[in-house]
Amino acid sequence: MEAFNMSHPSHLGGAYESRVKDLLISCQAADNEFNVNGINIDNALVTGLSTNSQDVEPGDVFIALNGLNTRGHDFIDRAIDKGAVAIFADTDGMFSLRYQLNKQVFFIPNLALHLSRMASCFYRDPSQQLSVVGITGTNGKTSCSHFVASLASGIGYQGAVIGTLGYGLYPHSSERPLVETGFTTPDAVQLQSCLADLQTKAVDLVALEVSSHALSQCRADAVAFNVAVLTNLSRDHLDFHQDMLSYAKAKRKLFSFSCLDAAIINIDDEFGLSISEQRPSHLVCLSYSLKNSEADIYAFQTKYKANSIETRVKTPYGEGSLQLPFVGQFNLSNALAALGALLVSDYPLKDLLRAFSTVPMIPGRMEVVSYSGLVPDKEQPLVVVDYAHTPEALELALTTLRDHSTGHVWCVFGCGGDRDHGKRATMGRIAHQLADQIIVTSDNPRNELAEQIIDDILLGIEDMQGVFVEQDRSAAIAFAVQHATQNDVILIAGKGHEQFQLINNEKIPFSDVAVAQSFLELRASLC
Q1: With respect to CATH, is domain 367-526 assigned 1.20.120.520?
Q2: CB pairs under 8 A, 24+ apart, for 88-96?
Q3: Whole-angstrom Cα distance, residue 248 to residue 234?
Q4: Fold for domain 17-122?
Q5: Which of 4, 13, 142, 253 has its CA 20 to 30 A from that of 246?
Q6: Taking Cα atoms as reference points, which of 374, 368, 264 lies closest to residue 316?
Q7: What number of other Cβ atoms are within 10 A of residue 151's Cβ?
Q8: For 63, which DSSP code?
Q9: What is the reported pLDDT for 324?
Q10: φ, ψ for residue 193 (rounded to 5)?
Q11: Are 131 and 202 in contact (CB under 8 A)?
Q12: Is the dihedral of CA 26, 31, 32, 34 positive or negative?
């Protein structure tokens, strides 16, 4: 796929421009402490925004943000040399003095907090021309967002998605693929760029994954959300948020947007119940549940089949049958969330229920691995690849697959490096409790030793019977496929859709699905 500067309007369907002063005024509107009055402004024409000095083109404003290991000020001179008409940078005493006589450089306190509003201003407030469903939660954001976009498109509207797998129209294909952004929620400038692009393509509804990082960093502050969805809250990202209280606070922020019309809340989740009870009074709120028949949207008479789910659903808009071409109890929960988001957006229940049967499989989300164009037959184990990389997600995946299996449940998994160490032993304990056979392997070790991560996981496993350790992920998958019986199910957890492993700052090509396919084909050839 061709790489490009997502922030630059030359890659969009329309031309965008603004003035330096207008962008500065947008910052003032977002922060009473910042005032453009008295600032000597060279009110140049702006034809692009860039957060990377390497991507700066003549006419751009370069936004000199500080990173984890870099300072934006270090790249100001390069951006000027490349033709930036203005530089917006965080206030910094030493650098402010250095550039105080340069009319191109403007120092803005808390610059990152203003970017969403600034970018929205530049791209002409695209989200205000769209119906936007924001989806947050520890697990399920990707599945739910793709359900929403797919269902909208399936009943004659144009749906689109922005999230972990990329952004673009539904249905997507090899001729019209999703465009990778590298983030669950793109940075503030990229996000407005994506929304502007979709707005030029006559999109009716956008399903947007909203991560806790994005909420904490104000990346989506200027997005005009119509509906907010909470899937769940469980332990994750504590390397960033430090504690669950801060993590929950970030998630809660989405439900405080004044533009919101409605909220869709999972009340099977304790945090969801709290959000439902404490929501702003102006919000229409629909609860959904697999357990509580008092919920607004409730699934009952559910049947879990080998490769599908059938259920009845009651809603405030009526009742009907729903068939999902997927495995996984939590896929059903995500389907209820998507249904609620579209119902409050005035999409008809009957059409939505019918459209569920044609929703395409989502890469790496309880994805049943096929080979030679066929789903594994009676002679093969059922192999499922899922992104489950948190304790709760792993527990849900294993519990669900037990419902779809008459044999043993295998689990191939590891944990990511440079991330929350505290969940490793917990995930080991969960795998040991819920799987019959476990193969502990590498995930994305990043800058940690894979052996150490595996040792951390094993601390949660008291009895090593039925537990195997194979650091090489390909060999671990091969072992499971070779030794599982035809009635068994194999969960390959943690990496899902990813096409690489991160080892010592290197991206090494690797796909759980492709590796599993190759070993299933080998097994079939030997039968």
Answers
A1: no
A2: 88/23, 88/24, 88/27, 88/61, 88/62, 88/63, 88/64, 88/118, 89/63, 89/64, 90/64, 90/65, 90/66
A3: 9
A4: 3.40.1390
A5: 142
A6: 264
A7: 28
A8: E
A9: 93
A10: -60, -45
A11: no
A12: negative
Tokens of 222: 């200027």
Structure tokens at 428: 């080991």
Q: In this structure, which amino acid lies at residue 90?
A: D
How is residue 374 annotated by DSSP? B
Q: For domain 126-358, is the CATH number 3.40.309.10?
A: no
Direct distance between the N- and C-terminal alpha carbons of the chain, in angstroms, rounded to an integer: 38
- 437: tokens are 């056979």
10-residue mean pLDDT profile of the chain (527 residues): values are 44 73 80 55 86 93 85 90 92 58 79 92 96 93 95 96 94 83 92 96 96 89 97 64 66 88 92 80 92 96 88 98 89 96 97 94 88 63 93 92 88 94 95 98 96 97 95 98 94 95 94 96 84
- How many helices (H) and strands (E) are present in the chain, helices listed first? 17, 24
The CATH 3.40.1190.10 portion of the chain extends over 126-358
Q: Which residues of 44-64 are buried (b: 16+ CB within 10 A; e: fewer)?
A: bebbbbbbebebbeebbbbbb
- Whether the CB-CB separation of 486 and 456 falls below 8 Å is answered with no
**Amino acid 10: pLDDT:** 45
Both tokens assigned to 277: 């009870």
For 478-481, which contacts have Cβ atoms below 8 Å and span 24 or more sequence positions?
A: 478/515, 478/519, 479/439, 480/410, 480/412, 480/437, 480/439, 481/381, 481/383, 481/516, 481/519, 481/520, 481/522, 481/523
d(CA 182, CA 162): 11
